[in-house]
């Protein structure tokens, strides 16, 4: 195999977008699975801006205008006539992005890539169908997801700067729901550290899932069997697909070391409040592509500018969201229920959310909501903390 200027470990959307945005040099994308887009590890709900950053790929199966936010005993409807997000068939979407990247990059499927240190930096060892391949690229990109072996070997990723949550999701048919709105359940009876969802795919199909710390299958079954809203929506539904995965929540102070940089989930470029990783991942992947291009051209002598650029773009959003998430984790289920109940009575606040709400920049909006509830919230939070 010929040598490459850049090797990207991981052929998901962010790895492909990184490769697509490298303007010069030979790029190889190493993907451990035999096909792009499988296995499914995502709910497939992507904001309009997120879809734009991804290059408006194929695969849209539904368009949604908002969400029903459900707690233990309350529900509030957020949204209006404006389309807010798209639901994607991820297999189709991922393949479409990979096809674009394939016009500029080579792929090696069913191949496992890992970095090894040498005197000049890091090289790549690839295991492919029983063969060992060694490459010495100028740049290595770790796009190897939440379990990133690349990040761990670099010493950039550890249990102190991120938390790993597990996911479980069913695709179901013959569901009866409002196809224009997703359903988000903030109810710690089912997910203590995140939330549960029902996402309409159109034509009576839905994705039903949750994120939490372990035992997700049993928790999801409990939700389906016990939650009154879920029971009504899914009373005649049948499971047609099961998927599981993991999600990193955290912030990396450094995502570059020597000639290696991390992108996407490997770099914790994930929204801590919703778990969405494709918007920040795509933005970060484009930044990585630009920095790598400049490095290969000799305009800059290292990759450190990548950290500076992505932090300027969305670093504060992740940091502020992590602070809010810490607050969420402290709240008791009854307090969450009361917050949703009060929000339901604040029509002017719902109008504000509908007008200014941003799926990709959630922290500032939530801070606004908390300020409106500041006296009541302060008392309730104090009670929960004591």
Automatic annotation (TrEMBL):
Pfam families: FAD_binding_3
Superkingdom in the source lineage: Archaea
Name used for this protein in its record: Geranylgeranyl reductase
Residue span(s) of domain FAD-binding: 115-298
SUPFAM superfamilies in UniProt: FAD/NAD(P)-binding domain (SSF51905)
GO MF: FAD binding; oxidoreductase activity, acting on the CH-CH group of donors, NAD or NADP as acceptor
Gene3D superfamilies attached to this UniProt entry: D-Amino Acid Oxidase, subunit A, domain 2, FAD/NAD(P)-binding domain
PANTHER family: DIGERANYLGERANYLGLYCEROPHOSPHOLIPID REDUCTASE (PTHR42685:SF18), GERANYLGERANYL DIPHOSPHATE REDUCTASE (PTHR42685)
